[in-house]
């Protein structure tokens, strides 16, 4: 059969084939494009039902060689998980509800569960051993054994010393408490012997035991402390609480090597205060000097409770307000500190009602003494101090500093061996205790060691003094950007870092207990660094964070610097391996391993992997200029699923300077203490903007309005923001700024102010901070930045008070406060609410029962979060009006 085709038919056939091929090619292109686009188009929209999926990542421990890391995933539901992961392989373990993890060499990992049990994980074989009824544990000096305190079958306590390598154990029955010293590998413990409490000493090296002391009837041992090197112990021998006729506690002091016990009995000391007794408390703790020659303990006067029915007498010339005065009762209620020298049988009281506060120098041979009331009554939060130095050997004391700033005493004053370091007149000074000479350490260095650009009325506190190198007597000091090393005698000042060049802040991160700040009665001991320590330094610039090392031999060694937020870096103790956390606003936190300063990075763990299934925004640094010409910065967070060409609503969150939030990942959550969450809003299609604010003393309100309005207008003009749908929110000082700004501008369509200060006059005349301090300081010297008293510049108090400008408010306002707020009285919110009510303005106020300055009850956190989102949803997105409006 033959087929005959006309020319038109053939042409039509080829035309159809060509058309079909082109359509097919177009379809392929569309599919390819669609497939690429689908990575965003098919991401889910985030809803409140999804929030519980998110966790918070926190690094816990790093093994000695860096082969294993433990970390926590903390969930708002409380269903936390401890994970253990191999850093060079894929092996990992997870333990729900576990805590207190510890690596023992590279083989074992121990942790406590919520069920009073300890889990021992063999990292080589993956075998687990579970011990029940465990109360606590700690690792021994040999790094092979563990001390375990647990409940015995008899109902009493039992101590087990367990060697994990050979699985052998030594047990002690009928134990009460124990105290371990890792330096000497000795363990002191109390146990019942012949019906009486005995204090014993166990040598973990040879497993020998000796009895130190047996308490008399109805007495027990408590508050035991070790000398740092393990050469001696001190303890209290105290009467049982249920004893009918209470007796005084005594102090025991035992030299381990000599096996000799000394006892301080208050009843046999002629100069012991008759109305006091020996105690050990947080403010007056039992302590042994480093050389073992002096024992420190507390003295407490027994007083009757205050009669709450008696008339309160408030005298204007009282040193403290009545509410604080009755808490100390002429300092009688505050424990004092005494020193006992057992070898000399010498006892002296160090603090008293005249000078009730103290710090010890680093070798505990001198005490720094002061009285916070000396210059009271006065207007600042903390009064200046007259500081005295006491020689603990002779008891002699003399005035060494007058009118020293009382603000942050532990920050502005440090006492080393025979040198007192203090900050005054923008410089660090040293006082030589033996020579009685003052010397300015920093006047010739050409930089400021406190913020010369501070916008607070009072003198700025120093950037810091993290500690010293004991062997070389070198101090570490901070300027705005850099770390300095300077001899404690003023010699050899060296700038260790070069942060000022790029406006990068460099700060030392302690890597051990020795390098960390420690409590020192009413102050703190600074960190102690060794001559050959390698310092870990955190670096932070406007748009990057990172770490570097410094040591005496190699100088500064860069480790990492990223346009991300990096934190929680831990270094392995046996090599240069380190692990740290990094994140960005659009990238949830992950653990990164780095084996050396020049090695490549390796991701060990990615948290919140569900993040990548949802639409998410991103962040960007924005610069702007206020009316004064100051160049400022802010962080703009884009809406999830952002599309060019569309206009979006925007929330402006305000509180001083917030540009450091650029890279920080924010978990979506309904449990927000101030009801605000960046990711909640970006996921709902909002821009969120956090501008920096600078202030002029005397005009905090106008300053904030100028900066915020300038910043908002910059964003509206340069970004896809609908100018008719911009909201503003703030809490505390930010709440004040919100209320003030909406009284000066109609730029914002809706506003939320939490715990706001609205009336500078009534707030100035309020007793904040638990009723112990008048609020004067907050305005004359502090954050409210007026710089003068109410009676020196009354007009400025009125000018900056939102309540006196309420008639100009046209923005619908949601205000909220905690009913028990001890920082900003809730009546500040009530005043503004009543003003707006009287003027017929739109305002709804929420008052949360029993809550303080921020909300702690998860029920109220969720309630506030939802109401704020509904408020902005109605006014900025046209959502349905809720009934509670």
Task: Kindly describe this structure.
The protein is mostly beta strands and 885 residues long. The chain is 14% helix and 38% strand. It contains 11 helices and 57 strands. An 8-stranded mixed sheet has the order 48-49-51-50-52-53-56-57, with helices on both faces. A hairpin with a 6-residue loop joins β2 (68-74) and β3 (81-86). α5 (700-718) crosses α6 (733-741). The radius of gyration is 33 Å and the shape is globular. The chain starts with 6 loop residues before the first helix and ends in an 8-residue tail after the last helix. Residues 1-39 have low confidence and may be disordered.
Work out the strand percent. 35-45%
Quantity of strands, as a count: 57
**Which stretches of 5+ consecutive residues score pLDDT under 50?**
1-39
Q: What is the overall pLDDT average?
A: 92
Task: Name the shape in a single word.
Answer: globular
User: Structural class of the helix and strand makeup?
Assistant: mainly beta
* Continuous helix count: 11
Radius of gyration: 33 Å
The biggest beta sheet reads: 8 strands, mixed
List keywords for this structure.
885 residues, mainly beta, seven-stranded antiparallel beta sheet, 11 helices, 38% strand, disordered N terminus
Helices and strands, with pairings:
Blueprint: H1 7-41, E1 56-62, E2 68-74, E3 81-86, E4 92-96, E5 99-104, E6 108-112, E7 117-122, E8 128-132, E9 134-139, E10 145-151, E11 157-163, E12 168-181, E13 186-193, E14 196-203, E15 208-214, E16 219-226, E17 232-239, E18 250-255, E19 260-264, E20 276-279, E21 287-288, E22 295-301, H2 322-328, E23 336-341, E24 346-349, E25 357-360, E26 366-370, E27 385-391, E28 397-404, H3 409-412, E29 413-415, E30 419-424, E31 427-432, E32 437-440, E33 467-469, E34 474-478, E35 483-487, E36 494-495, E37 505-509, E38 518-520, E39 523-525, E40 527-529, E41 535-541, E42 544-551, E43 555-562, E44 565-571, E45 578-584, E46 587-594, E47 601-606, E48 619-625, E49 631-637, E50 648-654, H4 678-683, E51 687-691, H5 700-718, E52 721-731, H6 733-741, E53 750-754, H7 760-764, E54 767-768, E55 773-774, H8 776-780, H9 794-799, E56 813-818, H10 827-838, E57 843-848, H11 858-877
Parallel strand pairs: 33-40, 50-51, 50-52, 52-53, 53-56, 56-57
Antiparallel strand pairs: 1-2, 2-3, 3-4, 5-6, 6-7, 7-8, 9-10, 10-11, 11-12, 12-13, 13-14, 14-15, 16-17, 17-18, 18-19, 20-22, 21-22, 22-23, 23-24, 25-26, 26-27, 27-28, 29-30, 30-31, 31-32, 33-34, 34-35, 35-36, 37-41, 38-39, 41-42, 42-43, 44-45, 45-46, 46-47, 48-49, 49-51, 54-55
Helix pairs in contact: 5-6
């Amino acid at each position: 059969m033959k087929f005959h085709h006309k020319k038109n038919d053939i042409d039509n056939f080829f035309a159809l084939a060509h058309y079909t091929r082109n359509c097919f090619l177009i379809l392929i292109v569309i599919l390819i494009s669609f497939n690429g686009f689908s990575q965003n188009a098919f991401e889910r929209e985030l809803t409140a039902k999804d929030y519980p999926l998110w966790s918070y990542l926190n690094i816990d421990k790093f093994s000695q060689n860096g082969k294993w890391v433990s970390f926590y995933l903390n969930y708002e539901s409380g269903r936390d998980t401890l994970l253990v992961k191999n850093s060079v392989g894929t092996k990992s373990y997870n333990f729900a509800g576990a805590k207190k993890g510890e690596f023992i060499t590279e083989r074992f990992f121990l942790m406590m569960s919520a069920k009073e049990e300890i889990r021992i994980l063999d990292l080589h074989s993956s075998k687990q051993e579970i011990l029940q009824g465990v109360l606590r544990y700690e690792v021994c000096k040999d790094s092979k054994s563990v001390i375990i305190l647990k409940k015995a079958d008899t109902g009493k306590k039992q101590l087990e010393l367990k060697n994990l390598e050979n699985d052998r154990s030594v047990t002690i029955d009928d134990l009460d408490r124990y105290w371990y010293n890792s330096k000497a590998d000795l363990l002191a413990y109390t146990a019942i012997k012949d019906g009486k409490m005995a204090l014993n000493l166990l040598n973990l090296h040879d497993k020998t035991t000796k009895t130190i002391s047996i308490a008399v009837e109805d007495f027990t041992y408590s508050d035991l402390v070790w000398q740092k090197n393990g050469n001696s112990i001190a303890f209290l021998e105290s009467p049982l609480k249920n004893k009918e006729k209470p007796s005084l506690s005594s102090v025991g002091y035992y030299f381990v090597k000599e096996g000799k016990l000394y006892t301080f009995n208050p009843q046999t000391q002629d100069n012991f205060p008759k109305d006091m007794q020996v105690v050990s408390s947080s403010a007056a703790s039992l302590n042994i000097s480093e050389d073992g020659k002096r024992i420190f303990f507390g003295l407490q006067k027994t007083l009757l409770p205050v009669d709450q029915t008696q008339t309160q007498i408030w005298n204007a010339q009282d040193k403290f307000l009545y509410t604080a005065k009755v808490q100390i009762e002429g300092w009688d209620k505050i424990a004092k500190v005494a020193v006992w020298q057992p070898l000399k049988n010498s006892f002296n009281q160090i603090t008293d009602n005249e000078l009730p506060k103290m710090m010890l120098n680093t070798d505990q041979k001198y005490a720094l003494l002061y009285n916070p009331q000396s210059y009271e009554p006065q207007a600042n939060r903390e009064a200046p101090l007259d500081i005295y130095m006491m020689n603990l050997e002779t008891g002699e004391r003399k005035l060494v500093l007058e009118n020293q700033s009382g603000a942050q005493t532990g920050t502005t004053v440090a006492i080393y061996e025979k040198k007192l370091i203090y900050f005054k007149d923008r410089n660090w000074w040293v006082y030589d205790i033996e020579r009685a000479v003052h010397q300015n350490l920093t006047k010739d260095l050409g930089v400021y060691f406190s913020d010369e650009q501070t916008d607070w009325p009072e003198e700025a506190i120093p950037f810091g003094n993290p500690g010293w190198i004991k062997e070389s007597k070198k101090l570490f000091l901070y300027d705005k950007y850099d770390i300095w090393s300077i001899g404690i005698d003023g010699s050899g000042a060296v700038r260790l870092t070069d942060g000022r060049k790029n406006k990068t802040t460099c700060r030392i991160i302690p890597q051990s207990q020795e390098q960390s700040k420690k409590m020192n009665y009413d102050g703190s001991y600074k960190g102690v660094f060794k001559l050959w320590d390698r310092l870990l330094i955190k670096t932070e610039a406007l748009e990057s964070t990172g770490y570097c090392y410094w040591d005496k031999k190699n100088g500064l060694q860069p480790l990492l610097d990223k346009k991300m937020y990096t934190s929680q870096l831990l270094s392995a103790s046996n090599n240069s391996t380190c692990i740290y956390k990094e994140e960005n606003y659009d990238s949830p936190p992950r653990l990164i391993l780095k084996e050396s300063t020049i090695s490549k990075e390796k991701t060990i763990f990615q948290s919140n992997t569900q993040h990548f299934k949802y639409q998410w925004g991103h962040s960007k640094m924005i610069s702007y200029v206020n009316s004064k010409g100051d160049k400022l910065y802010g962080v703009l967070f884009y809406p999830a699923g952002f599309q060019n060409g569309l206009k979006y609503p925007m929330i402006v969150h305000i509180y001083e300077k917030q540009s450091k939030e650029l890279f920080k990942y924010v978990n979506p959550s309904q449990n927000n203490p101030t009801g605000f969450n960046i990711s909640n809003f970006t996921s709902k299609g909002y821009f969120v903007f956090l501008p920096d604010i600078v202030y002029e003393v005397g005009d905090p309100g106008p300053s904030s309005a100028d900066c915020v309005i300038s910043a908002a207008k910059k964003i509206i003009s340069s970004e896809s923001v609908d100018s008719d749908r911009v909201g503003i929110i703030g809490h505390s000082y930010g709440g004040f700024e919100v209320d003030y700004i909406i009284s000066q501008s109609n730029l914002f369509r809706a506003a939320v102010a939490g715990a706001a200060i609205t009336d500078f006059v009534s707030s100035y005349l309020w007793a904040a901070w638990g009723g112990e301090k008048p609020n004067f300081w907050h305005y004359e010297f502090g954050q409210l930045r007026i710089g003068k008293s109410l009676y020196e510049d009354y007009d400025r108090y009125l000018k900056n008070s939102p309540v006196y400008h309420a008639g100009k408010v046209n923005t619908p306002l949601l205000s909220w406060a905690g009913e028990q707020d001890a920082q900003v009285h809730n009546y500040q919110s009530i005043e503004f609410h009543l003003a707006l009510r009287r003027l017929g303005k739109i305002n709804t106020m929420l008052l949360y029962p029993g809550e303080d300055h921020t909300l702690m009850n998860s029920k109220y956190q969720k309630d506030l979060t939802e109401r704020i989102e509904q408020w902005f949803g109605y006014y900025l997105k046209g959502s349905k009006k809720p009934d509670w409006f």
